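User: Here's a chain of 132 residues. Predict its fold as tokens.
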Amino acid sequence: MQLDGSSVSIAVDTGTRVFVDGSHASVRDVKPGFVVSAAWIAGKARVLEAFDLSSAGAIEVGVVGSVSGRTIVVRKSGGGTVKVRVGPRTRVLLDGDAATLRAVRVGYTVVFAAVDAKTGGVAGELRFLRPV
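Assistant: Prediction complete.
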């Protein structure tokens, strides 16, 4: 299901890079109920990132609304917005590759752990996907 609730099928091939909970995986490791983000070219998934919400903590999915300094504002899939701070130890990935916050643009999909007030809202890891 997409963020708007509609269904979508994603074609994959041997060139698709698959990640489950941040680790390299096989498409066979992706199970029903996982949250999936994908970036594709010419109808085939280039990167497929899946998250098992039953084993991970509280995972959020949203769309980048703004990027300013070391903070992003995310429009969450369930509604509302949240400010996420990026610290020196925050791992930033773009389409599965290491990146910097400077590469992130408004409209990118982002998957992240729920913001924790105890950490001052600093994210441990942010996974971004470019829009299709």
